[in-house]
TrEMBL record:
Record key words, sorted: Membrane, Transmembrane, Transmembrane helix
Cross-referenced SMART domains: EAL (SM00052), GGDEF (SM00267), PAS (SM00091)
SUPFAM superfamilies (UniProt xref): EAL domain-like, Nucleotide cyclase, PYP-like sensor domain (PAS domain)
Originating species: Acidovorax lacteus
The keyword Lipid biosynthesis belongs to this UniProt entry's keyword annotation: no
Domain annotation GGDEF: ranges: 356-492
Keyword DNA-binding recorded: no
Location of the EAL domain: 501-755
Domain PAS span(s) in chain numbering: 196-239
Protein name: EAL domain-containing protein
Residues of the PAC domain: 274-324
Lineage: superkingdom: Bacteria
TM region positions: 7-25, 31-50, 57-78, 90-110, 117-135, 141-159
NCBIfam families: GGDEF, sensory_box
Amino acid sequence: MFAVYDVGAYSVALLALAFFLVWSGDRLHHAAWLWGWAHLALALASITGFRYQLGGAPWLGAVAVLLTGFYLVCMYSANEAVQGRVVPWWRLMAWSLGLSGLIAAVGFGVDQLAGRLLVLALMVLLYVWSSYFFFTRLQLPWVGGAFALRAAGFAFLLIDGANFSTVHQSLPAALTSWTTNLILGLVLVSTASRQSRRRLEQVIRHLPDAVVARRIDGTVLFCNDSFARLAGVRSPRLMVGKPVPLLSADERETARVVHEINAVAGRGAMSMPVTMERRIRRADGGVFPAEIIYSSFNDFGQIVVLAQVRDLTERKQAEEERLRLVTSDLLTGLPNRQHLEFKLRELLARSEAQSQRCALLLIDIDHFKKINDALGHLKGDEVLREISQLLGSCCQGSDLLARVGGDEFVMVMSGLAGRESVLAVEDRARQVLAQLQREVRQGGLGVTMGASIGIAFSQPEGSSPQALLQHAELALYEAKAHGRGEWRFFSDDMDARLAASLRLESALRSALAEGSQELQLHYQPICDARTGAPVKVEALLRWNSPTLGPVGPDRFIPIAEQSALILDLGHWVMNEAMRQVAAWRAAHGHAPVVSVNVSVRQFLHKDFELQLYSLLLLHGLPASQIELELTESVLAGEDEELQGLLARLRDAGWGLSLDDFGTGYSSLSYLARFRLSTVKIDRSFVRGVDQDARKRSLVRAIVSMGHSLGLVVVAEGVETEAERGVLLQEGCDQLQGYLLGRPAPAQDRPPTPAA
């Protein structure tokens, strides 16, 4: 049994429990936590205070005072928490102790009635201030009214002032206190609960994801604004109690999924959420990819299924963009080599299954480096983008177009059947070459652009993307070897030629190894046209392989030029030529000028000039002992650095000779732009010059022009006395050919007497 005066205390304790329950559901609700502690402290203060008044131990009175101070501070701190200002625990305890000390000083030091009246005054002050606060600042009139009612209730307590807050308090005063306190507590519990629910509703309402809760039968319990917009409904409230819309691009599939989810949820709340991706159709007809997360919970015996719909449009776009960056060429936007091989594998499998073939066209832009060198890399990038558009205009249907290298593109034609497909591929190759044959101009400069194409067909028994690309590459080499601007089909003998080429390259690499005696320089005299006396010699490379036998320069030089071997080979020739000149000078006191051929890649290498002077210092030679024979392709660029290098070499005493004059383009412009020392008339103009009046006229013009520019004119390939006589009559300065001497090793070609 408990005393009547404890009824109010126990009711307040139950309110404290209610506050703690509210807080347990919303741990962020700090005000509910403080209101719970405040009401628990008030209940305990009443119980201990009443026990003290009935003659209990003094410590009961002290506890009652401490709990009263704690109650008042917690109520104040709860109001602060409602505004988002959290009072630290150490400050809360300090205030409680200070206020409790004040109450104790008055109650125990002066008079108990005075102490009780002080508590009454503090409570009235707190409730009046709280009422004003909730009325005006938070716009919560129900809470403000409850605090005002609680403050007004204390007026009844003053009627029986002597017995205020004692066990002898009158029943009306006690009922008034209990009732107003109970009303205030219930209002605060309701407010705290509503505030937690409202915060949750606000979070759900403004989630970017669409959220809907439904029962097993499909009845909507609640949804947020995002889901209402998907369903085309003005407000979420209008959907409550109605069947949930499927909102799916495939309603049959979605109905099946909903049935399965209901079956799982019907056996109890899901232990784990179920996630799936579906395409969602909005009420306006728009479709987007979405991730749907299903979960369920038990709501007083009723299973509730919660669905969260997340729009994946941005994520899918980001994934597609990442995939595009990985699989596409950034400059042109075309598929790159990796993506080409992936798509090509699919095309080949489909063609094989349908007894059809694919044709792969490997398209290489001829002399694209000239565009970069002459017009700049920005213009080169612009040209590559234009090329991709031009090639795209040549594609049809399921054709595949990709960029696989700096200036290489691949076009794949699929679904080819019958012998007529070869004609269709030839027509396409012809169309591509026509589209790409054009002049690229910028700032008064122009470069002619063209292309070469290698074509390979897939085999009926199946082909791999790598094999098809390799076959097309072999065909492309064949097209380039035949003068560029053409197309060639792959044939089986190209594989044999590739194998032979690889064997040759491997053997040449071994020949360049230190200590090898396979390479040797032979020297051919260049003679004075009038006297026939040798004036200089040309160093010519010879290779005698132990496995391949004698290999002509026409076989191994092109192989070396296709790889970096040409740089090593050119360095070896230059070093060996200078070593021989130094040996002649040491043995005889003099040596002829040696003319050394220099490849395009060797001359344009950034370290070429440094290597020349390093070799001169190594062998102790003057630059005038060496003449560099250059082809027109070396001089084809518009690079100012090239002109500067040629000028420095000429000023330093190096001889500079233009070889095979007349066989390239714009030969006359080279003679005018560059400071050369010698020009060599190509053997094609010399052969039969005694019988061809046109050739004789051309030789006469070249000699005249060379002399007017201060150049020594050399005629190559002189083989008959008749040719020699004509060349002498036309004014050639020097002659070279089998008639005057064949190439021979250094030991068989002693140096000529010093001039």
